[in-house]
Amino acid sequence: MPNRTDAISLLKADHEKVRGLLSQLEKSTERSAAKRETLLAQLETEILVHTTIEEEIFYPAYREAVSKKEDRKLYQEAIEEHHVVDLVMPEVKEADPSSEIFAAKAKVLKELIEHHAEEEEKEMFKRAKKAFEAEELKELGERMLARKEELMEEMEGGQAGARKSRQGGRGKQRMANGHDQHMPPRSTRRGGASREQTAH
Ligand SMILES: [Fe+2]
Ligand SMILES: [Fe+2]
């Protein structure tokens, strides 16, 4: 099989894509509300797919492979950071894209994600390179790629299409919730994220 993607290259490529979307979102203005919504929907899909393959495949393998306490600590921290992103994302989605508060919340999201991705690249991935054989990284990469394609397909078709037509084109950002049922480990977290917390 030519050019087999290793796990770390695959995850880093995802990070680059997300970084690009985050900077576009930061540069967008209050006058381009529709663009902001599109970017946010793309971001949400990318993040959901990426964090799912990390949590389902890469993180557990990493945790198994490393032996030091500090290496294991990174695993736990990464899970917690995903959780914080899950809490902030619905808030950005709730904010009016033509408001200043949207930009402020989007910036917080950007900083959180950038910090997390950097920590993975500089800490966890470095340690993973030592803990895994090259062949193991390629096998993990293949498994993640297959899962990623499956998740993307689920999101682009079926249920998402139905939601899209019902919710006037904002289907992509909503379908994440619709797919929770297929991803039991994440469902409690995402299901709990409320869209109704707008009281203040
Ligand atoms: Fe992550
Ligand atoms: Fe990541």
Structure notes:
It is a single chain. The chain is mostly helical and 200 residues long. It has one domain (7-191). 80% of the residues lie in helices and 0% in strands. It contains eight helices and no strands.
Helix/strand order, N-terminal first = HHHHHHHH
For the record, the count of structural domains works out to: 1
* Helix percentage range: over 70%
Average pLDDT taken over every residue? 83
- Termini separation (Å)? 55 Å
- Shape descriptor reads globular
The Rg value, from CA coordinates, equals 17 Å
Total count of helical runs of at least 4 residues? 8
Low-confidence stretches: 159-200
Tally the beta strands: 0
- Secondary structure category: mainly alpha
Give a short account of the largest sheet.
Answer: none
Task: Identify the bound ligands.
Answer: fe (ii) ion
Give the amount of beta strand, in percent.
under 5%
How do you describe this structure in short?
Residues 159-200 have low confidence and may be disordered.
What structural keywords apply?
disordered C terminus; 8 helices; single chain; globular; binds fe (ii) ion; mainly alpha; 80% helix; 200 residues
